[in-house]
Design a protein that fits this description.
By secondary structure, this protein is mainly α. The chain has a domain at about 15-60. The chain has helices spanning about 1-15, 35-40, 55-60; strands spanning about 15, 25. The protein has a two-stranded antiparallel sheet with strand order 1-2. Strand 1 (about 15) and strand 2 form a beta hairpin. It is elongated and about 60 Å long. Bound molecules: zinc ion (ZN). Zinc ion (ZN) binds near residues 18, 23, 52, 54 and 57.
Length: about 80
């Protein structure tokens, strides 16, 4: 009984998922290696918040979006 439960937990632990879209990760994944982000931003001890199925998911998780000069949103320069 106890070993059965352990086996089940291990099985679940072995299933890694993309931190952004939750897709199951098979043989490889993308990981952000930038030191500051690894230390200050990705805090999961197993590193499961820094596993992504694609570069696109990395970018989306960091809210990376294409901008057009002069049309930036969410940021306004001080009046001058
Ligand atoms: Zn993904």
């Amino acid at each position: 009984m106890e070993s059965e439960l352990k086996g089940l937990l291990e099985k679940n632990n072995n299933t890694k998922r993309c931190a952004h879209c939750d897709k199951e990760l098979k043989e490889n994944y993308f990981k952000v290696l930038e030191n500051f982000l690894q230390v200050k931003f990705y805090t999961d001890p197993e590193g499961e918040d820094n596993m992504f199925c694609s570069e696109e998911c990395v970018l989306k998780s960091l809210f990376v979006e294409e901008m057009t000069f002069g049309k930036e949103i969410g940021f306004k320069k001080g009046a001058d």
